Amino acid sequence: MAVLKLYRDRLQHNYNHLDSVFKEHGIDWGIVTKLLCGEEKFLEEVLALGVKEIHDSRVTNLRAIKKVAPDVQTVYIKPAPKKSIPEIIEFADVSFQTEFEIIKLLSAEATRQKKLHKIIIMIEMGDLREGVMGEELVDFYEKVFELPGISVIGLGANFNCLHGVMPTRDKLVQLSLYKQIIEAKFNKNIQWVSGGTSVTIPLLFTHQLPKGINHFRIGEALFFGLNLFTGETFEGMHDDVFELCAEIIELTEKPMIPDGILAENPSGDNYEIDESLYGKTSHRAILDIGLLDVNPKFLIPKDELSVVGASSDMLVVELGTNDKNYKVGDVLQFSLRYMGALSILNSRYITKEIVS
């Protein structure tokens, strides 16, 4: 059976490190938990860190968080679908919004539930996912701040999420200026300029983050310690909060080249023959995990092996001469990239464990 392990001490270490960095720079921050896919025991571990704010893209996850920690500020981090509006008002203290018609519905529902719902207006900064166009922001805000039950507490932007557009000092200065324009024109106070996610952290260390940026939403850096500019691990952080353990269910020395007429496999791939491998063999292991659980390109083996490929529920790896004498029933370990962990956490076939 394959198991995904979360190491409690490594998670706490990464949290403490990030919290210290943000406090040093006077920045508020929240943890993005959408990676955890509502896995209750992992959510409880995050809440135990001492976090005061949780961000998620699923209302069901926010409901679970409110059940465990009702005083934690919950933030719904994508534009709201109409059918989810009653639950968003009930379980999200804050939401990211970009559509005036949706905000009107949120206003009506907040009034009905006798709540004040806080929103962060997301601004388009070039990555072309969600966001109000900058030239439309003043008119947009003017309509929003008149709505009952709604309080605009921030302006924000996303980077790198769709087209890979990276944050720069110039873009973040522009985002900060939008706040100043709104405050000056409407004599309103905007609490946060939410300048980004884990991808923006390196600008802190290179002193390129404008002072106006005072809020972050962090997921990947917390769980993987990853500097998204360099692809390396931030100094002083762990990249192995998660570990995948998969059992060997077959191990046989086999030819390295398939034998027979080749056609497209069920995944739509066509295997290309490397003629230099004719006549050669390798110890080939099958693991009890497959494409239904994770794309192999997001797995990072901790041993010397190569991933051959995967079918729906089996992963094939080559162990070469099998110098470590692995056998059926032994377990191989993998670190994970973000999208790999996301897939596995969303798989009901993988056991999830906490390692104290």
UniProtKB/TrEMBL annotation:
GO terms for molecular function: alanine racemase activity. Its cofactor is pyridoxal 5'-phosphate. InterPro entries: Ala_racemase, Ala_racemase_N, PLP-binding_barrel. The lineage of its organism: Bacteria, Pseudomonadati, Bacteroidota, Cytophagia, Cytophagales. It is an enzyme of class 5 (isomerase). It comes from the Bacteria. The keyword Plastid does not apply. Keywords: Isomerase, Pyridoxal phosphate. This is Alanine racemase. Residues 9-225 form the Alanine racemase N-terminal domain. Its EC number is 5.1.1.1. The keyword Isomerase applies.
